[in-house]
Write a structure and sequence with these properties.
The complex is a heterodimer of chains A (245) and B (234). By secondary structure, chain A is an all-alpha fold. Chain A has 11 helices and no strands. Chain A has a single domain, classed as MetI-like (MetI-like fold, Orthogonal Bundle). In chain B, the strands form 2 sheets. In chain B, strands 5-6-7-3-8-9 form a 6-stranded mixed sheet, sandwiched between helices. Chain B has a 3-stranded antiparallel sheet with strand order 2-1-4, with helices on one face. In chain B, helix 6 packs parallel to helix 7. Classes of the chains: A mainly alpha (245), B alpha/beta (234).
């Protein structure tokens, strides 16, 4: 219990030190807003911020869902074909060095200013961790299981779906958790590239730092919420998996 | 299910540059229990894999119940590995019955087939337990029932109790002897423990260190423990 809530104490101490620093040194809020200023802005601008947060959240959730579907699918395909894996996997890794910031405006040009380019950018960012974690987990399954299952009447297809895939699910969930925490920043990149009505709107005016702070706070909360949701889903779906760690 | 025998002639096997089997002959009459004893790493497990049709020998021939083709041998052999390899998301009962589900039978059928064995062999209270909550000895029992429920005429047991402590191992040997007495099968057991071989098998085959050849074949009734140990040490 103590360790479980330790982060609250650390957070409170950090916020306290921050507040104290700003107040004591008299730092102007365009340089660094105090936590209480940010809290006040959060409250004052709550209806605008809530609308923007919902737009951003929608991009995050749809993008993440698409990334999970595509990531699982590619991991399965790459796992089942050695040839394809050798051909595609290095390219997949290399593709990660393409900065999303640079690609985002191009996608906006292709796809317009609607939801599509944002979802696609979030999905592009989130796809990689899901694919890699799932593929690694599939490849890490003890081959001895396959051999024993073959003597226990199991077809290769059955071994895949009833032995390998379940064993890989904790890995897939880890990848999804990482992806969930990336999704917020990805959505923001996308919104910066092409107008949105999302939280990026509140961050564009860099001088209104309390408002920027409020938007960042909401973004962090959404990212953590999504992360927690994935963790919860894993606990519900794979009660056996916690047993083993 | 009619009992079937196993015959292997001049089996050779290499693992990379290492020669593991250097011409091994093996005869397991239908319904017999044969133990293969040998030093660690001499290729005993490989021998089981080859009999089951999971690995191919470099040379030699294996016949299981008159069948030479690996697929046919695979259809007749069930393997119990050294580690239990139970699936953590399935209950003990559903692990035991998995071979029936693999063969396309509904889960209810698999459970109905596994439950009587759980009752009979001292696992009645553990049917619903996840494997992670069971002791090593209990897990091996479940793993053995899983092998039994595959419905194959030949059981290949690969050091089934090597990972257990001495007391649990003795319990399990007695338990297995009893289980095999009521559920007779053709059994090929691999172990490095001469006492285990004498307890469970009616014939013992001693292999040399790698590359393995047969150095002694003896009936468990007539063979002395010392003779076997002597042969094992070369």
């Amino acid at each position: 219990m103590r360790s479980r809530f330790g982060w609250m104490i650390v957070l409170a101490a950090l916020l306290g030190a921050w507040e104290l620093y700003v107040r004591v040194r008299g730092i102007p809020d365009y340089l660094l807003p105090a936590p209480t200023d940010i809290a006040a802005t959060l409250w004052d601008e709550r209806s605008t911020l809530a609308d923007q947060a919902l737009v951003t959240l929608r991009e995050m959730v749809i993008g993440l869902a698409a990334a999970v579907a595509a990531g699982l699918g590619s991991a399965i395909i790459l796992h089942r074909s050695d040839t394809l894996r050798r051909a595609v996997y290095p390219l997949l890794v290399a593709s990660q060095s393409v900065p999303v910031v640079a690609v985002a405006p191009i996608l906006v040009i292709y796809l317009g200013f609607g939801l599509a380019p944002k979802v696609l950018i979030v999905a592009l960012v989130c796809f990689f961790p899901v694919t890699v974690a799932t593929l690694d987990a599939l490849r890490a399954v003890d081959p001895e299981y396959r051999r024993v299952m073959r003597t226990l009447n199991a077809s290769p297809r059955r071994i895949f779906w009833h032995v390998e895939m379940p064993f890989a699910l904790p890995g897939a969930f880890s990848g999804t958790r990482v992806a969930a925490s990336y999704s917020a920043v990805a959505a923001l990149f996308a919104e910066y590239a092409g107008g949105s009505g999302g939280l990026a709107e509140s961050m564009r005016n860099g001088l209104d730092t309390p408002l920027v702070g409020a938007a960042i706070t909401l973004l962090a909360l959404m990212s953590m919420g999504l992360f927690a949701l994935v963790t919860l889903a894993e606990r519900l779906a794979l009660p056996w998996s916690r047993h083993r760690r | 299910m009619g009992a079937i025998g196993i015959t292997a002639r001049a089996l050779r096997h290499r693992y990379g540059d290492t020669e593991t089997l250097a011409g091994v002959d093996l005869d397991v009459p239908a319904g017999a229990r044969v133990a293969v004893v040998g030093p660690s790493g001499c290729g005993k497990s490989t021998l089981l894999s080859i009999v089951a049709g999971l690995d191919a020998p470099a040379a030699g021939q294996v016949v299981v119940g008159g069948e030479i083709a690996p697929v046919e041998r695979l259809a007749r052999c069930a393997l119990m590995p050294q580690r239990d390899l139970l699936l953590p998301w399935r209950s003990a009962l559903d692990n035991a019955g998995i071979a029936l589900e693999n063969a396309g039978r509904p889960r209810a059928d698999a459970r109905a087939a596994a439950m009587p064995l759980f009752d009979r062999f001292g696992l009645a209270g553990f049917a619903g337990a996840p494997p992670g909550s069971l002791s090593g000895g209990m897990r091996q029992r479940v793993a053995f029932l899983r092998t039994l429920l595959a419905g194959k005429p030949v059981l290949l047991l690969d050091e089934p109790f090597a990972s257990l402590d001495a007391i649990t191992r003795e319990d399990l040997q007695d338990w297995l002897a009893e289980a095999l007495a009521t559920e007779p099968r053709t059994v090929l057991l691999v172990t490095h423990d001469v006492d285990e071989a004498l307890k469970l098998a009616d014939r013992v085959v001693v292999l040399s260190a790698r590359p393995a050849r047969v150095v002694l074949v003896a009936d468990a009734g007539s063979a002395g423990r010392d003779d076997l140990l002597g042969a094992l040490r070369g």
